[in-house]
Amino acid sequence: MTREEIVAGAYEAIQNGSKSFRAASRLFDRTTRERAWLLYSWCRHCDDVCDGQTYGFGNGVRGNVSVLRGKTHRAVAGEAMTELPFRALSLLLSECPIPERFLDDHLRGFALDESGWQPGTEEDLALYCYYVAGAVGCMMAILMGVPADDEDTLERAADLGIAFQLSNIARDVREDLAAGRCYLPLDWMNEFGVTRETLFDDRNEDALVAIVKRLVDSVSVYEESARLGVEKLPFRSRLAVLSALRIYGAIGRRVGRLGRAAWDQRVTVGKIQKLAYVVPSFAEAVVAGRS
C-alpha cells in the first residue's frame, strides 16, 4: 500500500470511530493531522479487538492482548504487516520517533481490562487512565514535535489524556457495567455502601451522583495541569489540543450536571458547540504562545 492509501484507511477509522477526536484533528497542520490519524488507527484497532467491537460499536468476541502485543512489536521491528492498523503504526514510526515504551504502556491498559480488573483506589484509577489515554497523549505530543526526552511536557500531555479518560468513564458508567467492567474505585464504592449490582438502584442515586462527581472534579484538576504544557506546541497544535480539552471536558461536566439522567442516553457534544469551543481555544492558544 502507498502512504496515501494507508492514510486514507486511517482516516476511515477516525471518521467512524470518534467524532470528537476527528473534529479536533482538523485543526492540526496536514502532516500532524495525518500522523494523528495513523496513531488513532492503531489505538482504535486495539480497543476494538479487546472489546469485541468495530469502531467502538457492537458486542462480539473479545480478542487477545498478547496477540496485539506480538503484532505491535513486529511493526516496531519493521516487519511487513498485512493489517492496516499495524501498517499505519509502522508508517508512523518511520516518520516519528515514538518510544516503544508508550506503545507497551497503552497495551497494559487493555491487559487490565482483559483480566477483569477494577481499580481499588483513586491512584489505581489514575494509573489505568494513564495506560489507556495518558500514554496516547504522550505519543500525540511527540508527533506534534515535543522531544521524546522532554519529560515535563510529556507529563502534561499524559495529564491531558487522563482528563479525557475520566470524562469517558463518567459518561459510560452504565455502559461499562453492562459490558462487565467497572472503573469506579472500590474504596469509593465501599465508602458509599454500593456494589456493581446495586449502583443503579433507585435508593443509591445520591451515592452514584456523588461518586461520579468525584470523577468530574478530577477532570478539572488534570485539565489545569495539561494546560501548563501547551506553550511548547506549535500554534495549530495548541489550538487543536485546547479545543479537544474543552470538548471532552464539556462531556464530563455535562454528566455531572445531569445527575442520574446522565445515563438515560449517551452524553455528547454537538457540532455547533464543538465549533463554539474553537473561539476561546484560539484566544488561549495565542496567549500561550507568548508565554
TrEMBL record:
Entry keyword annotation includes Metal-binding: no
Pfam entry (one): SQS_PSY
Key words, A-Z: Transferase
The keyword Transferase is assigned to this record: yes
Domain of life: Bacteria
Positions in coiled-coil regions: none
Signal peptide: none
PROSITE patterns in UniProt: SQUALEN_PHYTOEN_SYN_1 (PS01044), SQUALEN_PHYTOEN_SYN_2 (PS01045)
SUPFAM superfamilies per record: Terpenoid synthases
Protein name in UniProt: Phytoene/squalene synthase family protein
